[in-house]
Each structure stands twice: as structure tokens, then as C-alpha cells.
Amino acid sequence: MRRFATRSKAPIGLAAFLALPVFFASLMAATLAIEKARVVEWSRPGGHLARTWHNPTGSTEAKIWLLALVPPLLLVLAGWLAAHFPYGLYVTCAAACVDALALTLRLHRWEVHHTARFGNGEDLIADPTTSSSLARGEWEHDAAQTVRSLVHYTIGLALLAALIALYLRYRSRPPVPVPGGDLQQTGGAPTTSGL
After folding, report:
1. Of 69, 83, 88, whose CA–CA distance to 27 is shortest?
2. For residue 85, how far is the Cα from the chain centroid?
3. How far apart are CA 189 and CA 105, in angstroms?
4. Collapsed DSSP state (helix, strand, coil) of residue 100
5. pLDDT digits (tens, 9 = 90+) for 124-171
6. How far is the C-alpha of 34 from the C-alpha of 55, rounded, in Å?
7. pTM for this predicted structure
8. Beta strands of the chain (E only): which ranges?
9. Residue 176: partners with Cβ closer than 8 Å, 6 or more residues away
């Protein structure tokens, strides 16, 4: 059991702290990636096809939440692994940056596909009606901007944590001896001999 002991708990704590904005960014990204409206179609008299959009099913919502948990859990796992090595805090900061940036790789594609899956927009009401509160594609654009913003905050917090750790490491170093610094001072005025 001793081999699993960590050197420091700071990387795990930092990973857990940074996992929070990563989770919310991941939740928005997962929603854009896989959420789809439940579409009901039927034939009207005269051969016309009618279609209505309804809220996503409960199983789709469960998939979104489970998928959103993956990036923050990976970050906490990286923090736990980094806690076993020296300089683990910096590894955790780098892992947080990589984890957050990975959420933006296909973000634009997910935004476009989510807009296509919701024919009447996220509010499920056609744009020309007065009851529509969101234009088609408006929610998707806002969600993608939120993901980008949370990713920037995560990277900023990780870099700030790394800078603080560097500063504290620099401050805790023992002073470097100065050549000639071991001379003893007499504490008085210079004396003259031979008077």
C-alpha cells in the first residue's frame, strides 16, 4: 500500500478545483455534440407530411450528463497520477490546459449539427411565431461561446496556479552564499594605529 502514497496532495486538489469549469464546459459541449430533438411525423389528409419537435428523451439527457463527466474525471485522474512525482503541480496545470482545449477541437461542427437537429430552434417554436424566444442557431452560438469562455478561464487559472507555485518555490530556496560574505565586522569606526 505504501507504493500508492502521494508525494503531495496539491496536484489532486488543484485538479479537483480546475475540474469544475471543465465539467461545465464539457456539459455544454456534450449537449451540442449529441442532443437531438424528438421528432414526430405524420401524414395529413392530402398527402402532406406534418412534423413537430419535442424535448429530447430522458436517455439522451442521461448520456449527455455521463459524457460530460469524462473530461473532469480524466483531469482528476491526471492530478492523482501527477501527485506521485516531483513537479506534479505543473503536470496537473498542463493536463488541465490540454483537457480544456480538447473540448474546443470539434466545437464548431457540433454547433452546426445541433442547429440542424433542432429545426425550430432550441425552444422548439418556429421563428416566425411571436412565441419564439430563441432564433434558430442562437442558443447553439451562445453555448459554443460559453464553452470557449470556460476553457479560457480554466487555462488562465491553471497558468496562474503554475506561476504561484513557481514564485513559492523561488521564495523557499535557501540564500546563495556571496563570496566574501563571511567577513566579520567589528561594528565600530575604523581605527588607526601608530598614533
Report:
1. 69
2. 23
3. 72
4. helix
5. 566 666 655 667 778 888 999 999 999 999 999 999 999 999 998 888
6. 13
7. 0.75
8. 38-43, 49-54
9. none
